[in-house]
Every structure is written in structure tokens, then in C-alpha cells.
Amino acid sequence: MTRISSVSSDRRSLLKAAGVGAAGIAGIPLLAACTSQSSGPGSGPVGSASDTGTPTASLLPAPEPQVKPLLDQQTVNDALAKLDGMVQGAMESTGVPGIAVAVVYRDQTVYAKGFGVRESGRPETVDAATVFQLASVSKPLASTVAAGAVGHNALKWTDPVISHTPSFSLKDPFVTRNATVTDLLSHQGGLRTGAGDLLEDLGFDQSYILSHLNQEPLDSFRSSYNYSNFGYTAGAQAVADAMKMSWADLADEMLFKPLNMTDTSYRHADYQKASNKALIHVPAGNRTWLAKYSRDADAEAPAGGASSSVRDLARWIRLQLANGSYDGKQIIDPEALGVTHVPHAVSGLPATPGARTRFYGLGWNVSYDDHARLQLGHSGAFNLGAATAVSMLPGEQLGIVVLTNGRPQGIPEAIGAGFLDVAQNGAPTVDWLGFTAGVFQKIDESEKPKVDYSKTPDRAAPAQTNTFYTGSYANSYYGPLIVAEGNGGLTLELGPAGRSTTLRLSHFDADTFSFESIGENGNGVAGAIFTPGAGGTASSVRLDFYDETGLGTFTRA
Questions:
Q1: What is the pTM of this model?
Q2: Of 106, 317, 347, 480, which is most buried, counting CB atoms within 10 Å of its CB?
């Protein structure tokens, strides 16, 4: 972005610096000072001024720097009066156990409330202080912390990650040397979506995962956008390294303590210790939900490991809308925070010529509405049982955060969008829950296995003897894998030493077996395809679930 520190008397050079054209001119009100240097009557633009040089009463002296607020206290109050009904309607429609919502307007928390229960089948209710796992709403929280470090001059947004984290490494040496904090926090480092996620599902820690990202294939550096939890984590870790602190401690000192966010942490252990916490749930059919899983996201803490309450997050939204200040005190440098709010990457091209492009900032989805107002937002999703969303209209000084303890079905997004819709139009103009539910259903369908291993072929070829398959196999990315006999069949064991995972193999066809995929990214039954080798044993096995980027083949040791 071109910075203009002074106004030149050379109109051509100014237009060049401004970007030439209406967009560039409108962004620089000082342009009027240059173009008004005329030598006689009639030399100015038609209709801009009288012959005496005085602006006419019908025209502004300069373009407006931003869209004026379109909402007022009454329209927001009217929407708030309907918010309980929106939440209750979503709960009745889906059966989701618990929801918490907070709304900020004009630097005040005007709504903070809980609905439902913390755990299905138990009486403890959700309130504004109930702690939820945030999933990817952790990302804009993290970019706020990073902005604080930049404001303290510990680093620059444009610093190469490797200058603060010498161990940082990606597959391409050029990218390793040049990838900046900004590149990784805007998902432009080239790592593909999901890079490292399956290692996390197997129980590997952050150190192991980050040290193995250099085996992941890369897309184009800075010209591709791929949402990457561990790319984001690597960028945030560089910030922590620059401050010579752990990430969780840095977040405490930089943001949570100054805002008195006592319910908030990037440590899973703190979430577990909280007495007032919402457990995560998955659907069990017929609008019922089951607290079946736990989700420890410490490995990707800056990207998905935070936990908090809406009471705390309302304080954070107030800081966001107040350019980094809270209760009159500057907590985060406003210029550093502003960098997180602007587009850094194109996250979605327009579907039609008249549609709008979608952007990603640093930890924020960035867009502009029908009135050209900036919109900032982010969703969080744990398939194991949490869904969250935050949305802000900075020009209106309005923000809403919605936390739920159920697997993603579009519920928090629908409540947030519905509230903003009602605030602006007096009543909903879209079936938001129907719309967002459809979006998430399409996501689920797109993630189904390419091969249906749940149905054995009618004429399946028999397997060979167990000894053909058993033994130890090696993989430089996932580590060792052991195929063994057990429980009347075969099992495979993989994962970190001392915390490995054992999966039961079922015969599918010939030298192909199946197993149930696990973890946050589990999507059903997957395949284990053995390749015959010399000596009457299999030489390798490819696990297709773990082979999305070509890293899923294990070779007999």
C-alpha cells in the first residue's frame, strides 16, 4: 500500500501516488488543495464552486472518509428485543444443548446471556460466564495479541518468520527464507488446507507438527489462499518467540489480563479446570445431542485452542471497535491492530460479475456490505462438537459473538447474521438458519470418502495369511506404523510413542482392508491398501485417509 506523507504541488505525481482514478482520489481529501490552484474563473471542475471559489451549499467540501452510521440506538434496541426469540428458535429447531450470546454497541456490552445447558442430560445451565471452546474464533483473538507485540516493537508484520523462529522450515527453501508473519496469518504461505491437522488428530504435539511441515507440498507462495491451522500457528509462534514468551503466557500478558478476561485462556488445561464450562456435543439423531468427545487443541493453540465466555469476548469486541483502547486506556497499538482488519488475501472470487469478492485479513474474514460498510467476522468449528462465530460492523460500532456447544450446523452464524439483519431491516429478510445449515451440509458432503469401504464387494477376493501383512512400517511424516494380529484379526498402530492409536482392520477386498478414521477430521471408513513385495510379505501399505497430500504410504522397515 502506498503511503503519502506530504502533498506535492505536482498534480500528476499525486494522482500516480493515489492510484489514479476515482477510488484513489476519494481516499485522499487533501487532493482538493492541489486541484484548487487555478489562475482564473471557470478553471475548476464544473459545479464544484462558484466563480469566487466558494463551494456551493449543496456540495461537500471533501469526500466523506467513511459511510455514515445507518443504525441508531432505537434500531439496535429493537433488534435486541428480538434476539432471545432468535436464539430460542434456533434451539427448538436443532435441539443444540447450549448457546451464549453477547452484543456490543457504542462501547457498551448491551446484551450478554446464556441459554440451555452446559451438558446434555444435566441441569447446569449456560450463562454469560460459561466457558466454551472457541475453535477458530481463536484466530482473530490471536491476531489481536500479535498486534500488541508489533505495537511493542518486538517485531514487524513483515519480518520473516525464520528471523524469530530459526527452526521454521517449509518444503521450498525460498519460502522458508521469505515467509513473513503476515503471510502465515493471512494463509498465503502456500501450505494446503489441513496441513498438519491429521498429525494433531493422532496426538502429535505442536513441536513435532511444526517440524514436519517441511514435508507438506506447497501451492504458490503469496498468490494462493489456503486456510491452514498450522501455518497460522507457525506465524503466531514467531510472535511469541520474538517476545521470548510462550504463546499462552503472551496472550495472558498482552490481552487477557489488561482486559480482565479471567475466563479466557489458550491452555486446554485451564478449560478443563473451569467449573462453569460447556462440554462439546455431536448430534445423536432426532434433535438429541451427546457429549461424546473431548478436544485438546493445544498443538494449534493460536489457531483453534482458546476457550472463553461471551462476558470476556464482549470486552475484546469493545477493544476491537475502539481501535485498541479499553475504558479509555490504549491496550493495543491502533495502527498495528488496523493491519489485521484490511484485506491481505482474496479468499473467494465473485460468483458473478456483480457479486462481491471475499477477503481475508489477519485472523479476520473481511468483506463489504451493500452500503460499502466494512464487515469483520470469523467462525469456529470443531467437528467433535463446538461451533462459534463473531461478527462486527466497525462503522456502526456494533458487534455480536455467539458460542454453542454443538457440532457445526450453521447455528451461531445464523443467529449473528439474523441479528444484524433485523437491526438493519426491522425483521429478517433471509431464512438464515436454513441457509447456513445448507452451507454446512454441503461441506459435510464434500468431505465424504471417495471410496465407500462400508460395503464389501459382492465378489471380494480373499486376503492372504496375516503374516503377509504384519510387521513394522516406516514413514518420515507420520512415524512408524505396526500391523499386528489381535482380537481375531489385524490391527494397525500409529502415533507418538506412549500415546499411540490402535485401529482395527476389516478385510475389504484382496490386499485392501478398511478402518474407521478418527479425530477432528475423521470422515468415516477409510482404506489400507497393501502392496505385495518380495519374500512373501507386503512391501508397503497406503492409508488413503492420511494420503491427501501424498504422504500416506508406509514402507516395510
A1: 0.89
A2: 317
